[in-house]
Structures are given as C-alpha cells and as structure tokens.
Amino acid sequence: TVCLSALLGHSITGVLLMPLVVAVGIKLQAAEETAILLAIAIPCGMHFAHSSFDNVLSQNSSKSLGRRSAELKAKDFRAGGLPVSLTAVALVSTIGYRISTVFFGKDPQGSRYDTPDKLMPRVAKENARAAMMLQAVPALPS
Hints:
By secondary structure, the protein is an all-alpha fold. It is 64% helix and 0% strand.
C-alpha cells in the first residue's frame, strides 16, 4: 500500500484500494481495522515528488523562486520520504493491528458483520447453464 501510494499518489490509491480492502475486511470480520490500517498506510508513501499534492506544491514553489540552489530535487524527497515510509511499514505491520483492535475492540464470535448483498457473488446465467450442463454429463470411468 505504501509503495502503491508513493507511485500513484495518495488520492488515487485511496480511491482504488479502500473498497477492495474493506470488502476483504468484511470477509475477515475486521472491516474497521483494515480500513484504519489502510488509511494510516496510504499517506506514508512520500518518497517521490509526485506522491502527494503537498510534495508537488513544494517542488513547484521551490522552482518558482528562480534560484537553482533552492530548487528541490528527487533526492531531497527520497532522503526524507524513504525513512518515513520504511518506518511506517514496520510500525503498521507490527503494532498497527493491535492498536486498531484496542481502539475498536475485538469480536470473538465473528458475528459483527453479515456480508452485504452488494458484496455477495452473483451467478451469471451463462455460468449457471454451463454448470448444469456439466452436471448432466456422466463422468468417464477411470
């Protein structure tokens, strides 16, 4: 997630990944926990100039000063962003789930959620017909 948000940018990563991660979280009986961990991890990918609006704005502002010595370069973003990203990955992957379960509590029975109808898999009519045809075909003797 951190690598994807660094490459694509924070906004598009959140738009793409949040629905997928929440759907997986519902199946794991931990939708809030997974959503919070994703929301924490996305802004931590800061090691490129195009990773966030703030990085783009600071780079453009430094270019508009007109002094080459004050202009931000890619190595400036990597020097500060890469250690932050690596530290965030380590913290979120080790203690992030524990902190989110302390905040939201843990459901021991796993009965907090039922899968919403929108996330239930649908059977296409073509696939249902093909499955019925396969069941009607007798198995070959082995």
